[in-house]
Amino acid sequence: MKRPIIFRKRFIPSEMVELKDDVLLYRDDSMLITRWTTLKPRHDIAGGISLYLIDKGCKISRIHDAFGRFLHYYCDIIHTDYSAENDTYIFTDLLADIIVHRDNRYSVVDLDELAEALKTSLIDTDTICEALCSTDRLIRCIDNGEFHGYTNMIERYVSL
Q1: Which of 2, 24, 83, 94 is the most buried (most CB within 10 A)?
Q2: DSSP label at residue 75
Q3: Are 12 and 117 in contact (CB under 8 A)?
Q4: What is the topology classification, in CATH, of domain 5-155?
Q5: Selection from 77, 73, 99, 97 nearest residue 155 by Cα
Q6: pLDDT digits (tens, 9 = 90+) for 21-72
Q7: pLDDT tens, position by position, 67-79
Q8: DSSP-derived 3-state class of residue 11
Q9: SS3 readout for 98-113
Q10: What is the sign, positive or negative, of the torsion defined by CA atoms of 101, 106, 107, 109?
Q11: Is the four-CA dihedral 13, 15, 16, 20 of positive or negative sign?
């Protein structure tokens, strides 16, 4: 499977990083699944498997520690730009995140960063609306049980 070029773009801090070490596990028109390790060493997490749901505006990551133990699912709200000419994805982090804990409770986090980005003109109201709509869609997905279908897709790649 040909590997596309994948970038992660962030507003806070302002950066765009090529995820050149991520391993592509699956790809179709609406999703990518990758395996990765942290870009910089961390004491709390070591890596994970991420499911990018391009048309849903989110990335669901199964996070594990240095021993491969599952910690939680971390869901980034994202915007995707794709160039077929260069086979390049730019996944822009829209700041709002949802952590789904092992007991299926969830926490919405980083809304303060979303507000700060609007207040300091890092993002515009259209981007805020996109982030809030994608966050709402993901919360509904978690609440109605659809989220488990996505985590089951990720789990298929854990032992590979």
Answers
A1: 94
A2: E
A3: yes
A4: FomD barrel-like fold (2.40.380)
A5: 73
A6: 999 999 999 999 999 999 988 999 999 999 999 999 999 999 999 999 999 9
A7: 999 999 999 999 9
A8: coil
A9: EEECCCCCEEEECHHH
A10: positive
A11: negative
Q: Could you tell me if 112 and 96 are in contact, meaning their C-beta atoms sit under 8 angstroms apart?
A: no
- 119 torsion bin: left (phi>0), alpha (psi -120 to 50), beta (else): alpha
- From first CA to last CA, the distance across the chain in angstroms is 15
- Can you say whether the dihedral through the CA atoms of 33, 35, 40, 46 is positive or negative? positive
Indicate if the alpha-carbon torsion angle 111, 21, 150, 71 is positive or negative: negative
- pTM metric for this prediction: 0.96
Residue 114 token pair:
């979303």
Q: Are 22 and 36 in contact (CB under 8 A)?
A: yes
Name the DSSP letter for residue 95.
Answer: E
User: Residue 158 and residue 160: Cα distance in Å, rounded?
Assistant: 6
CA distance 95 to 136: 14
